[in-house]
Amino acid sequence: MRTRIAALIVVPPLVAAVFGTLCALGYLLALAFGLPPRLNLPTWIRVVGGVVLVSGISLFGWLLAYRGPVDLLVSTYLTFAKAVRGVNPSEPAGRTEPLVIAGPHRWVRHPLYAAVVVLVAGWWLVLDYTFLLFSAGLLALWFDLVVAPFEERELRALFGPEFEAYSRRTPRLIPSLRRRRSEPHPG
Fold first, then answer.
1. Taking the mean position of all CA atoms in its chain, how far away is CA 19?
2. Whole-angstrom Cα distance, residue 83 to residue 121?
3. Contact 105, 170 (CB under 8 A)
4. Which CATH number covers residue 66?
5. Within a domain: 166
6. Distance (Å, rounded) from C-alpha 92 to C-alpha 144?
7. Residue 110 maps to a domain
8. What pLDDT, in 10s, does the model give residues 58-105?
9. Angle, vertex CA 57, rays to CA 123 and CA 66, nearest 5
10. Are 55 and 120 in contact (CB under 8 A)?
């Protein structure tokens, strides 16, 4: 119960701080490249952005059907606590949830991260703020190069060969239809 409460208190401001930092960096990058605050995207691209935004929201909804919001916050909290304390991700530290490989997890190993990137890209297209384009790219890099590798070391320790097999057949952030056809997925 204490872990749940701590997760509810710590994780949302932490996520907001990381997102805010990456948005600020995106803004600075837009300035550094001399890009205008808005690119004056045509209406049809902004409509496409609405579709992208709805897709990101739908991916979040689909994800929550397989992992509850509190479960996501608790696992994020436990992983973050390991990183802050400098604990090796392969050390046991309280994560007890089952390995989820159904729903959006069938298509990508980290659907939450993919959904966030899709949402920010959709916001960029709809709102036409240049910094959001850079922010989406920075988020994708953050998730792919920093967060996912740490979490995957932890998941390998928790689930062993089951996670290894899952990670071999399921892409990290970007779905692959070719892979879907060539390698049948269990369940």
1. 11
2. 28
3. yes
4. 1.20.120.1630
5. yes
6. 23
7. yes
8. 999 999 999 999 988 988 888 888 888 888 877 766 677 889 999 999
9. 150
10. no
Nearest Cα residue to 165 out of 182, 144, 186, 150: 186
- Residue written as token pair 């991916």: 59
How many domains, the chain?
1
Angle ∠(127,133,139) on CA atoms, nearest 5: 120
Encoded tokens for 72: 């996501």
CA distance 112 to 72: 9
Would you say residue 187 lies in a domain? Answer: no
Name the amino acid, one letter, at 183: E
Any idea which residue has 């392969």 for tokens?
90
Which value, to the nearest 10 degrees, does the dihedral of the CA atoms of residues 65, 66, 68, 72 take?
Answer: -130
Burial group, residue 117, by CB count within 10 angstroms (0-12, 13-18, 19+): buried
Q: Helix, strand, coil % (nearest 5) of the chain?
A: 75, 0, 25
pTM: 0.89
User: Domain range holding 82?
Assistant: 2-182
Residue 141 lies in a domain: yes
